[in-house]
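Weekend entry, working from home. Most of the wet-lab plans are on hold until the incubator is repaired, so I used the time to fold the two sequences that have been sitting in the queue since the last round of cloning. Logging both here for the record. First:
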Amino acid sequence: MEIDFHLETLYADVTIPDGPAVLLQAYMPNPGEVLQGAGTDRDFKLLREYLGSQAFYDLKDGRESAVRAAKMSIELRRKGMAIKSTIDLLIAQTAIDNDLYLLHNDSDFDRIKTVSPLKTWE
């Protein structure tokens, strides 16, 4: 099982900023979901070590943050744009709440930017 995350391969032409943090991890409410995918004890150990080395961010205001994410969805629908994933709205709100840049390859986030203060690294 290969767990190396080759950021330079995925984003070869992207320079990571020195200033504010960049949100690279996907929204993961339960790391156990990733760990249960390990096929061997060795893989489990490697995944657990990797996840333990990563910074994870949460919604800052719990339900109020979730409400703000839902409002983004409503505003997008009013503009005739749809978001494919509720999780994308929560990822965006997590980045907003924590004043992070979001590095992505998903057009949902480009749409979310039109109705929110989401900052993306381009």
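Second, folded right after the first finished:
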Amino acid sequence: MSTLTVSPHEPLTSRGKAVLGAAVAVATSLGLMLSLAPGDWGSAAPLAEVIARYPAVVTALTAVMNLGGDAVLWWLGTVGAAALLISRHRYLAAYVAVTALGALAFGPAAALVSGSLNGPAMNAVVAGGLVLFALLPALPRRLRPVAAAVVLTVVLAVVFGQITVAAGEVSGVVAGGLMGMAWLGATVLAIRRWPADGREFTAVYRFRPGPWLRTSVTLVAAWVLVAAVTAALGAVITAHPPAFDEAVPRWLAAARTPRWTALSDFWSQAGNTHSILAVCLIVAPLAVAVWRRWRPAVFLAAVMFGEVGVFLAVAATVGRPRPSVSHLDGHLPTASFPSGHVAATTCLYGAIAVLAMPSRRRWARSLALALAILMPAMVALSRVYRGEHHPLDVAGGELFGLLWLAAATLIVRPNASPSLKPPPPCPVEPWCAVIANPARVGNLPRRRTEITAALAARGRPAPMWLETTRDDPGRGQTRQAINAGVTTVVALGGDGTVMACADALAGTSVALGVIPMGTGNLLAANLGIPTRLTDAAAAVAAGHRRLLDVGVVDGRCFTVMAGMGFDARMLHDAPAALKARIGWPAYAAAAVRHLCGVPMNVTLRLDDGPPIRRRARAVLVGNVGRLPGGLPLLPDADPEDGILDIAILMPARRRNWLMLAWALGRRRHPLPTIETFHAKQVTILSDRPQPRELDGDLIGPSDRMTAAVRPAALWVCVPALSPTPTPQPPTRPTMRF
């Protein structure tokens, strides 16, 4: 959950009022001048002829021009104002209502003075101004320029369409735009008491049905499944239609009366696109205002857009003809199976019923449930009566609507919300310190705010905040945090920051938390720590711990891997700019340069065993086993078993590298051209100095590397579902040297 507080709207100063008043006067004067004396602006006919050659452009402009109609201002003045009023923004709601509804009266009044004033252009300017002024602050700051650009583009498209497609006078369109600007400015000046609640206009975002990618993928999978089931059912019905499926429409067509025909037209219109869209545009903003969360609106949008997609896909696939009776609604472009009217009605009113179920008002639940049952039934009956569908067509629409509604409800969970119980009292003494790497973490102040909010949501106080420097990558800051008495140190950065913090924490009872922000993030990936910042912070606050081994090379600890040879060269040559842009795949570009380099002759001594001589490209010593992308190089590696896993890479030619990459990608073991060993200590001797690395950080080149395991040395914060839980560490930190 995150809450966005928008910066306050400042009251107008005397100078600001004077400037705005002058602008209103100028815009009004110019608008009246142009409308009363249009003058010769030239003809837009040549441009209109060019646009007319492109039917797609004409269709798009015609659709956009609908946003300049009175319906948009009516929607803003009623539904938009009601949503703000429910949200307890009384003065802002009054401003929106007065400006929108006043424009509906001001436009015709101005048109009485001059018939050349273009009303749609004025409406578009007023509606766009209201959205920018009153509703734009509800968006995050980074999205406001994009939203403003979209709104301005739509307004300009309406104006352009009025000139070209609607063949309006250029002077009248410009006059309408100027009068719209004048009306917006006049309403601002007319409100002497600036909206007090506008200074506290906040938008609460609690929509977290899970990671966005997982939720989206699950929705798509459910959509495909529902579409496949519906299409299969439609294919069977089309190929083997039962006799009653054609007999019922014929019987109803023979029994038609004017009264029943008029009644069926009402119910059929209740399920058409315009009616469904109108109800959605009313319900969605009111749902956001009532629940003060975006989840209900997103759920409603997912249900309705998904329903349209399933309907179009299945209708095009099945292609069932309409009943062989007279059609009261004329020829329709889509197939008979399934009924889009029934499916849309089922999804819409079913979604409203789902949203209403948690309500404490029994009458609201009963009304929503009654509508969810009555509306699809009446629409279905009217569609069969009017000869547009067979009975099994409306049954198929009802079925797929219910299936898709159930799937979206289970995946999005529209009624789920964070607990409203007050958090437990926060401890007085510091419990956590964040060691942040400014070189790896962009927009550090914002990240700090997000982490603090995520911890506070789980009853944790604000952490200490320390930043690494070029000279100290995190060891000194970690020791400073330990001396301050914290029980958890959180590394906010890449694997290098994690290694520096782990080096200082090894042997203490202070736990290491990881919020991955680097290129590889290998420790986080191997332990199942979420990559999303707020989820990783939640794992730290949850208090689940594992006691892990660490490796030691030249007195420095590593948590993931140490390497000598090819891997260190790859890390050295990976472009920093490319790593920042695409992440760990940047290492592949550097690896190609060294695939056929000169191999090294190495001698390994495992614990007290005999020497092992090999001709190798690289030697890796792993505490964990997975590489970037989840590739299992050392599948038996366990950071709690008290031993290290060693891999000798021996590809001789390019094709051997390809074989190795193929086997890694398919998770096939044993891997070709790789030999693995296990030991508590390993000494590697090379015939010449080689580059070396620890957890992705380069250390000095040498012809020797000795790695030893330090068992059960480091407490690490992990998610609750992480395997092999271990007892919690002591609450008071101790230092061991």
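Plan for Monday: verify the second prediction. DSSP finds 25 helices and 16 strands in the chain.
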